[in-house]
Amino acid sequence: MDKARIIDGKAYAEGLRAHLAREVEVLKSAHGLTPGLGVVLVGDDPASQIYVRNKGLQAIEAGMRSFETKLPADASLADVLAAVRAYNADPSVHGFLVQLPLPKHLPEAEVLAAIDPLKDADGIHLINAGRLASGIDGPAPCTPVGCILLIKEARGPDLSGLDAVVIGRSNIVGKPVAQLLLRENCTVTIAHSRSRDLPAICRSKDIVVAAVGQPELVRGDWIKPGATVIDVGVNRLDAPEKGPGKTRLVGDVCFAEALPVAGAITPVPGGVGPMTIACLLRATLIAACRQAGIAPPEI
Ligand code: NAD
C-alpha cells in the first residue's frame, strides 16, 4: 500500500508567514498601518519564555511590531490586569495574548475576561468562544485554525460532508477544532476520555484530529484507509537510545502505524506545532485591519 503524504506544517507555516509579510507591506504602504502583537508573560517558565521569544521574532520577521510585558511569578492580579488593560488601550497593539499557564495564584478566567475581545489574538475570550459556537466571524484559537488550514492543504478547500472525529474536548484545542470543522460543513464527532470504543469511532472517519496529550494513543488500525490524520499532541518521552538524559517528541498518533494507512498525516514535530505562531500573526493582521476599518486580505 502507498504511504500517506506527510503534511509539512513547517513549510506551510513558512509560506503563510511570507504571505503575511507581503500583506503587512501592503498595509504599511497603502494605509500607514503596522500590525502589532503583544504578549503578557507572568513568571519564568522556560518553555513559555522560548515560545514568547519566538512569537516576538516571527512577528518582527513578518514586518509587524512586537510588544512584551514580563511580570514576576509573584505578580498580583492587579498587576496582571493592569498589563492587560494597558494593551487594551494601546492603539499600536492590535492583538495580544496572556501566555498560559498562569502561576496558580492567578485566576485565569478573570484575567482572560479582561482582554478586549477585538484584540483577543488567541480567540480565547468567552465572547469569541460564543461567536465561534454561534457561527459568527471573529478571532478563533490559533492551533485549531492551523489544523483546519492543514486539513485543507491535504484535502482541498471543500470539506463539506466529510466525517470527522476530534479526540479531546479542551476549550483551547478540541472544542474549537470541532466548531471550525462544523463551520466547514463536516459531520463532527467529539470524543474524549469517557468515550466508549474510541477505535470504532475513529475507523469510519475521513478526518481524525487527535488533541489528547497521550503518547501514541491512536493506533494504525483505528485509521480508515486514506483518512487525513492531524496530530496535535506533543508528548516528550525519555530516549535513552539517543544518549543519557535525552528525550524525543511523539504525538498522540502512532505515526509509524498510521503512515501506511492514512492518506495524509502530520508529523510530530513539524506538523501542527509550527502553525500556531503563524496563525497568531494571521489573527493579528486581521485584527489590525478590522480595527482600522479595512477589509482583511484573503489569507
Ligand atoms: P487537555 O489536557 O486540556 O485536554 C485533553 C483532552 O483529551 C481532554 O478533553 C480529555 O477528555 C481527552 N482525553 C484524555 N485522555 C483520553 C483518552 N484516553 N481517550 C480519549 N480522550 C482522552 O489538553 P489540550 O490543551 O487540549 O492539549 C492536547 C494536546 O495538544 C497536548 O499534547 C498538548 O501539548 C498539545 N497542544 C499542542 C499545541 C501545538 O502544537 N501548538 C497547542 C496546544 C496543545
What do these coordinates show?
The chain has 299 residues and is of the alpha/beta class. It has 2 domains: 27-134 and 276-291, Leucine Dehydrogenase, chain A, domain 1 (Rossmann fold), CATH 3.40.50; 158-268, Rossmann fold, CATH 3.40.50.720. The chain is built from 10 helices and 11 strands. A 6-stranded parallel beta sheet has the order 1-11-8-7-5-6. A 3-stranded parallel beta sheet has the order 3-2-4, sandwiched between helices. β2 (36-42), α2 (46-61) and β3 (65-71) form a beta-alpha-beta unit. α2 (46-61) packs across α10 and α6 packs across α10 (275-292). The mean pLDDT is 97.
What are the salient characteristics of this protein?
11 strands; six-stranded parallel beta sheet; binds nicotinamide-adenine-dinucleotide; 16% strand; Rossmann fold; alpha/beta; 39% helix; 299 residues; 10 helices; 2 domains
Describe the secondary structure blueprint for this structure.
Elements: E1 5-6, H1 9-31, E2 36-42, H2 46-61, E3 65-71, H3 77-89, E4 95-98, H4 108-113, H5 126-133, H6 142-155, E5 163-167, H7 174-183, E6 187-191, H8 198-203, E7 207-210, E8 228-231, E9 235-238, E10 247-250, H9 255-258, E11 264-265, H10 275-292
Helix pairs in contact: 1-10, 2-10, 6-7, 6-10
Bound molecules: nicotinamide-adenine-dinucleotide.
